[in-house]
Specification:
With 173 residues, this protein is an all-alpha fold. It is 81% helix and 0% strand. It contains 6 helices and no strands. The protein is rod-shaped, with a radius of gyration of 50 Å.
Length: 173
Amino acid sequence: MVKQMQVVDMNTILKIAMLGLVVLVLGAPCYGANTPVKASAEEAKLSSSLKVREQAVVAKEKELAQKAQDLAVIQKDVDAKLAEMLALQKVIAQKLEEVRAEQDLEFKNLVKVYSVMSATKVAPLLNEMADANVAKILRAMKNDLVAKIIPKLEPQKAVRVSRLLGRISESSQ
């Protein structure tokens, strides 16, 4: 029973101590509640400097936010221009393919026309053309027809075109 009494007494003592502490804290007058805070000149200068820096930081943040918005607008514009360029590139590629197809058809028609003409009539026309074009035309023709046309060309032209046809370089001779 003595032990129980000591425990009760200790609990009571703790409760009384806590109550006393609460009364002390709540009942004590607040020190400096009505007295102004005194700061040294250095502390006032530091406080003023911190306010200026804080204002500068706020201004920079606003500036950065505005620049981020401007950049977003520019990026959107660039993306739109890029999409437009890609669309135009597709159109140009399609048109180029159409032009090439038309040129191929015209070239094939020219080869057909030259193929039905006699070698004597085709040779003067080919003599007036660039060697590379003549070689291209002759490559598209049948070999037996080319064999009839080459002798009818001017001799120097025939040699140059023959080299182009056979891809023979002058240094290999």
